[in-house]
Design a protein that fits this description.
Elements: H1 3-7, E1 19-21, E2 28-31, E3 35-43, E4 46-53, E5 56-61, E6 65-79, E7 84-88, E8 92-95, E9 100-116
Antiparallel strand pairs: 1-3, 2-5, 3-4, 4-9, 5-9, 6-7, 6-8, 6-9
């Protein structure tokens, strides 16, 4: 393996072990969503990888930046003021610190993510 190969990594489900979780019951709005995360990078306040969720809805509150690229599925982010952002395969979204609302997975969603704390 060359030095360049060690500095570049493909983001795939095989690149990291899967971590399976559910939303905090106090934040759950509907359904029984199961979240699977493949954390590829976790250092210096930067996190990135793949995340997948089955249908359901839960409350979110962001203190960090997140860039999202939807690879599969359909999710809706609804802000506290009622503004809804539909996210489907091919969509890219930036979620800024201070966003609060509801994340609803309508159809099982797979996303690439980059989080900066």
């Amino acid at each position: 393996m060359t030095v360049t190969q060690t500095l570049i990594q493909r983001v795939t489900r095989d690149a990291a072990p899967a971590v399976i979780e559910r939303p905090d019951p106090g934040k759950l709005v509907s359904g029984d969503p199961v979240h699977t995360t493949w954390n590829i990078e976790d250092r210096d306040g930067l996190y990135c990888g793949l995340w997948q969720s089955t249908p359901g809805a839960w409350r979110v509150s962001y203190a960090e930046w997140e860039y999202v690229k939807i690879l599969e599925g359909h999710s809706i982010l609804t802000a506290e003021d009622g503004t809804a952002t539909h996210m489907r395969a091919g969509d890219s979204v930036i979620i800024r610190p201070g966003f609060s609302g509801i994340w609803e997975v309508v159809e099982t969603t797979l996303k690439d993510y980059v989080i900066l704390v």
